[in-house]
Amino acid sequence: MRTKFLGRSGLQVSELSFGAMTFGGSHGYQHIGQVRGAEAKAVVARCVEAGINLFDTADVYSGGRSEEVLGEALRGLRDEVLVATKVRWAVAGNAGPNDQGLSRHHIVRSVEASLRRLGTDHIDLYQVHGWDGRTPWEETLRALDDLVRAGKVRYLGASNLAAWQLTRALGISELHRLERFVGHQIQYNLVSREAEWDLLPMAEESGVGITCWSPLAGGLLTGHQPPGQTPPAGTRRAVGYFEPHDTNRAFDTVSVLRKIADNRGVTPAQVAIRWLLEQPGVSSVILGARDLAQLADNLAATTWSLDDTERADLDLVSYSPPPYPHWHQMSTNAARVESPGGLDN
User: Lower Cβ count inside 10 Å, N or C end of the chain?
Assistant: First the structure.
């Protein structure tokens, strides 16, 4: 499996990484997965065997249980891999006013709890899980910088930020010579391409690596969910997650996925993952397999490539009209537009 540098950092991550949101299965996350014990260890071992070196989780997944299960599954393998986790939201059972957000207080308490649950002395990539409009970036970034200097965290990342929020954070890091975010974990897939207009160009310009969550749009891009019907039980869409903005376009995209998959003798899921792997600026695509069979199919996406026609068909069917100001720039300055979401210098 190939590795790519995570943004402008010297850290190399596998092109596929594993998301442990499926680990634990408690505190409302049963619908996502209940992998634990020997099954979790087998999944992790298979990932490492395939060349995956980045394992991603968060303190809120299953109320901390995901971190515990991942830590247990990585025993004996910890030195071979990178572990990423996140901070921002309140972990189940903690309801105090300071049990969420990106304050120094919450960050310091949270990282210590994550280290205990993961059974490790450091976190390779510590990510803010979302925006906190009440805490100044200066406070958040200074606290994170202190954790890097203390050796408890090695690299910093963000998740689910708007382009202006991430840009401001990077500017403050540069101004005050603080550790900067080297990665941004975002939703990006064939039916959620909004990131192409601002987040991806901004990340490329700023040297921030992109990792993608929900590459299969909550299971929609597996091709198992027929249009016009209630999403199958056990899928994330069944509980209201990841509903596409344009359902018609989404299912048109699934039809093209199926056609390409049938012609190649692969699954629609592989085609969707392959498309993401070939997008510029993407450092790693995060898999969320529930079992070894699902994992094996997803891993196979690294063994082949889309041809020009297949890629063009997918781009066309999944493309959505540009938001303002991009449509205005494209229509009034067409000679200078390089590609959707990007402007020529």
Answer: C
